[in-house]
Amino acid sequence: MSVQGPSRARILSLSKDVLCPSKDGLHKSPPSTGSGCSGGYAGSGRSGGSAGSGYSGGDAGRRDARPRRQPPARALQLNPGSYLAFLLWALLLVAALPDRRLGLLLALVAAFGGLAGKSALRVLASRRFWLFILSTLAIAPFILGEADLRWGMLRISRAGLETGAWMAARAATLMLAFSASLGALTVAQMMGLFERLGLRGLGFALGVALNLGPVLRDTVEAAYHTLRLRGGFRRPIQTARLFLVTVIANGVRYGDDVVQAASARAFDPGARPSQGTQILGRVDKAFIAGLAVVAVGLMLAA
Amino acid sequence: MKLSSFTTRDWVYVAVFGALWGALELTLGAYLHVLFPPLANTFFTGLILAGIGAAIALVGYTFVPRPGAVLSIGIITALLKVVSLGGAKIGPVVAILAEVILMEVALLSKRSPTRGRYTLAGAVAVSWNFFHKFIMMRLLYGKGIGEVYLKMVKEGSQTLGLDIRYAVAIIVVLFLFRVVAGAVAGWLAWDLGRLVARRAART
After folding, report:
1. Contact at 8 Å (CB) between B190 and B58?
2. To the nearest 10°, the Cα dihedral for B124, B125, B128, B129?
3. How far from each other are the two terminal CA atoms of chain A, in whole angstroms?
4. Helix, strand or coil, per DSSP, at residue A9
5. Complex ipTM
6. Is the distance from CB of B55 to CB of B98 less than 8 angstroms?
7. Of A141, A229, B75, B148, which cross-links A161 as Cys (Cβ 3.0–4.6 Å)?
8. pLDDT tens digits, one per residue of A56-95
9. A206 alpha-carbon distance from chain centroid
């Protein structure tokens, strides 16, 4: 039984999408019509995509024709190093600060998120975030702390409610910090960061992986329907194995075509980094020094 | 570990397997989190995702048998999770990175890969699932080890149908269950990797 993957023309089009440079993560022209390029990346940004896969982009062909989303406007213009430093700062303080200082930390993290741009606070619009926080608050008085009131099986604890509130504050701080730091970086910034760290290949791999989403979805769909139409579900274990082998083998075959496309454009993962992407500038150093001062202040006041 | 010695082919395979694991986390992960909500027992969700994820990373190691390959696959998966539509979530990212670091340590050897090392790598990777809860509860909720231990014993007692007095036995069984599931994932990854390599070479 042979299950075919995506068409070769589409693969080569996607390969070029990955390989052609676009430093701000935006395509000025459809990638399939431009001239060849040697290395670099195309950040696929955070454009909306299929809800099923969660990857950016739906059908590859249609996606390339769509205008890409502009990077979010930010009041705070920082380089990736500052965002990483902020994440480490928040992790350290969440672990080290006593409960009563968490409110202040949460306010600081939210303020940073607001300055970093709307996408940094995207987590606040997430239903799962609020479900997580509110369910912690709602359940805590019934299961934590010494019971103050009892009605048969039901017990309510004021101490439990207080503990639950601190737990929710800690979780909210951490989720916001994560969203405001890593979540605020564009794919192009991440790839630039890898390049500056001498890991150009890892940035390239991230670009390839992001563009693989639609291809994998097609492969999975083709394999699933082929196996279903051939009555594969009568032998579920054998079918599951065949399904996995087919999907992975088609992914590997797609990879071979990307390698060919990269070689044709003389892509070199070990090439020296370009000077375009900065990790830490003067403003970033001042920002990190400010974070250190605030951390010391919070610790001493605790 | 020298990532700069990776060829373009190696990086592309890292991307392919990172994307496969990422797609699994985004699709099956979301589905399992609906079946088992966040505050319910996360035993099955973590176990299933860690087991299949470890197997995919180990199949990737069959194609890129170099130190750092599994770690790179994990980094790509974690980044896909970060940039996915669901937004950045700290729990799965920490779990993915911890699992690949453990697998990388288990695979460290100058000899060629063996089924035994794949099995060991799978076992240590999935066994992280046991410690993950302690670390994330401390980080997210500020809870101590004692409270997590008590909660785990209570849940384990319900899941296994054992009396809560056998707390140590419950904890050992829960840990061993993860080790065995990981070992099976590693064992199967060895066969799957070879099957895929044969299939890819044939077509």
Report:
1. yes
2. -120
3. 67
4. helix
5. 0.83
6. no
7. A141
8. 433 444 444 444 445 555 556 778 888 888 988 988 888 7
9. 11
Number of domains making up chain B = 1
* Inter-chain CB proximity A209 and B83 less than 8 Å: no
Residue in B with minimal Cα distance to A124: B87
Buried b / exposed e across B3-31, counting CB within 10 Å, b at 16+? beebbbbbbbbbbbbbbbbbbbbbbebbe
Domain harbouring B40, CATH code: 1.10.1760
pLDDT in tens, B121-174: 999 999 988 888 777 777 666 656 666 667 767 776 776 677 777 777 777 888
SS3 assignment, position A154: strand
Distance CA B191, CA B115 (A): 9
Cβ pair B12:A255 closer than 8 A: yes
Confirm if A41 and A30 have CB atoms less than 8 A apart. no
B148 touches chain A (CB under 8 A): no
C-alpha dihedral, A187 to A192 to A197 to A201, nearest 10°: 70
What domain range is B32 assigned to? 3-202
What global pTM score does this model have?
0.69
| DSSP letter for each residue of B166-198 | -HHHHHHHHHHHHHHHHHHHHHHHHHHHHHHHH
Determine the distance in angstroms separating the CA of B130 from the nearest CA of chain A, rounded to an integer. Answer: 20
- Closest Cα to residue A12, out of A187, A191, A255? A255
Contact yes or no for B39 and A132 at CB 8 A: yes
Structure-derived torsion over alpha carbons of residues A202, A204, A206, A209, reported in degrees to the nearest 10: -130
Mutate: best of A88, A212, A257, A265, partner B, most B CBs <10 A = A212
Residue A197: exposure state from Cβ atoms within 10 A (0-12, 13-18, ≥19):
middle
**DSSP for residue A265:** T
Cβ of A205 and B141 within 8 Å?
Answer: no
